[in-house]
Specification:
The structure is a single chain. By secondary structure, the chain is of the alpha/beta class. The chain has 2 domains: 126 residues, no CATH class; 234 residues, Ribonuclease Z/Hydroxyacylglutathione hydrolase-like (Metallo-beta-lactamase, Chain A, 4-Layer Sandwich), CATH 3.60.15.10. The protein contains 12 helices and 16 strands. It is elongated and about 85 Å long. The chain binds zinc ion. Zinc ion (ZN) binds next to loops.
Length: 373
C-alpha cells in the first residue's frame, strides 16, 4: 500500500493524499459486503478484493470531480507501483498463476460463478488443456445441417423434405401447411439461428424455416432469399459478419466458376454465400453451393468443412478433394451428394492429407468432442 500511497502523495501532497486514503478505506469497507461472492471461500477472492479496493478509490476520485480517464490513470499508476515492489520472480509466478489456462478458462469460471466452487482438475495434463463443450453436427439432404453446442441450436439450409423422410420413424405430418411438405423429424427443435446460403428451393424453403423458427430466432440469408422467406430476415453479403450469443457468423463467397466441375453454372458470384460459423472456439464452414474458389484458401483455421460433392450444380468429388486440401480442416463432412459416393472422396483426401472424412447417413450426428489448443 505504501507504494500506491506514494503515487497519491506525489500528485496531491501528503495531507490530501492521507485524507483520500482514509476516504477510500471507508468506501471499501462499505462496498465489500455488497460485492457478490465475497464472504465465500473461493479462488477468485484475490481478484474480487482488488476490484473492490480500486473501485473504492475510483469512487472517491470521482467525488473529487476527476474524469473516468484521470481516475483510471491514477489507479493504473498505483497498481503498477504495487506490482513493481514485488521481486521479478514473484511477479512471474503470480503472472503464471493468474493467466494460467485454469484461471482464464471461461467454462470453469462460469461454472464457478454459478456453483460457488471450482471444478476439480483431475490431472496436470488437463490443467494445460482448454476443455470445450462438444458440438453435434447432424446432416439432412441435400445441405441441411443442424449444429448444437451448449444449448445453442442452429440450422443451415433447412429446406426440402419431400423425398427424404418417407422412412424416418419419427416424422410428423406437415402436409396441411400452406406449402406441402412430407414431414419433419419431430426432434428437430426450434432454432436460435437459421442460416440460408442462397435462394434455390433445395436450400431455401419458407415452410421449413417457419416450422423451425421462434419469434426470437435470427434468420440470416442473402437478399435474394427475402422473396421466399419474407422480409423478417437479416440479410448478409460475402465478407459481412454477425454475432448472436456465443456464435459469430461470417458470410463468404459461394459460386460456380468457369473451370469448376459444375455443369450448370447457376450460382453467380455475389448472390449466394457460404458460412464460417465460429462457435465454442471452433470454426465450422458450410460451403453452400459452390465450386472450388480461390477465397477458400484464405479462411484461416477451419475445424469442420461441410462440402458439396454431387457435381452438376456444385463441385464434384475430385474438385471437393482439391478444396478440402486447400482449406485444410480437421474433418470434412460431405453434403449435396446426389449419387456421389463419399468413400471415393475419403480415398482422395485421406491418402494426401491428415483430413478425416466423415460421411453421415440421413439424420446421423457427428460429435465434435473436446479439442485441445
Ligand atoms: Zn443452388
Amino acid at each position: 500500500m505504501a507504494r500506491s500511497k506514494s503515487v497519491l502523495i506525489s500528485r496531491y501532497g501528503k495531507g490530501p493524499a492521507n485524507s483520500l486514503i482514509g476516504e477510500s478505506r471507508r468506501e471499501y469497507e462499505a462496498l465489500t459486503p455488497r460485492i457478490p461472492y465475497i464472504g465465500e471461500k473461493n479462488r477468485l477472492l484475490i481478484f474480487l478484493l482488488a476490484t473492490g479496493r480500486y473501485l473504492a478509490i475510483y469512487r472517491v476520485l470521482q467525488g473529487k470531480n476527476l474524469t473516468f480517464e484521470e481516475a483510471g490513470r491514477i489507479i493504473y499508476q498505483m497498481n503498477a507501483a504495487e506490482l513493481k515492489s514485488i521481486p521479478i520472480l514473484g511477479r512471474r509466478i503470480i503472472g503464471y498463476l493468474w493467466f494460467s489456462s485454469w484461471f482464464i478458462q471461461p467454462s470453469r469460471l462460469r461454472h464457478f460463478l454459478r456453483e460457488g466452487k471450482p471444478q476439480r482438475c483431475k490431472s496436470r495434463r488437463r490443467l494445460n488443456m482448454r476443455r470445450r463443450m462438444p458440438i453435434s453436427i447432424k446432416w439432412f439432404p441435400p445441405s441441411w445441417i443442424q449444429i448444437n453446442a451448449r444449448n445453442t441450436l442452429l440450422f443451415i439450409d433447412p429446406a426440402y423434405l419431400k423425398t427424404y423422410f418417407k422412412d424416418y420413424p419419427k416424422r410428423i405430418e406437415f402436409s396441411s401447411w400452406p406449402d406441402p411438405i412430407d414431414g419433419l423429424p419431430e426432434e428437430l427443435e426450434q432454432a436460435d439461428l437459421i442460416l440460408v446460403t442462397h435462394h434455390h428451393k433445395d436450400h431455401c424453403k419458407r415452410v421449413t424455416v417457419n416450422r423451425l423458427r421462434r419469434p426470437d430466432t435470427l434468420v440470416i440469408a442473402p437478399k435474394r432469399c427475402a422473396k421466399e422467406l419474407g422480409e423478417d430476415i437479416q440479410t448478409i453479403k460475402p465478407g459481412e459478419r454477425l454475432s448472436r450469443a456465443n456464435v459469430v457468423i461470417e458470410a463468404v463467397h459461394a459460386y460456380n466458376t468457369e473451370q469448376g466441375r459444375s455443369t450448370r453454372k447457376q450460382h453467380h458470384k455475389g448472390e449466394g454465400v457460404g458460412y464460417l460459423i465460429m462457435i465454442e472456439g471452433r470454426t465450422i464452414y458450410h460451403a453452400g453451393d459452390t465450386d472450388f474458389i480461390p477465397e477458400m484458401r484464405a479462411f484461416g483455421q477451419v475445424d469442420v468443412a461441410l462440402l458439396p460433392i454431387g457435381g452438376k450444380f456444385t463441385m464434384d468429388i475430385s474438385e471437393a478433394a482439391e478444396a478440402a486440401i486447400a482449406i485444410d480442416p480437421k474433418v470434412v463432412i460431405p453434403m449435396h451428394r446426389f449419387e456421389a459416393d463419399p468413400r471415393r472422396l475419403a480415398d482422395e483426401i485421406e491418402t494426401r492429407s491428415d483430413i478425416k472424412l466423415i460421411p453421415l447417413d440421413i439424420g446421423e450426428t457427428y460429435c465434435l468432442k473436446d479439442v485441445t489448443v
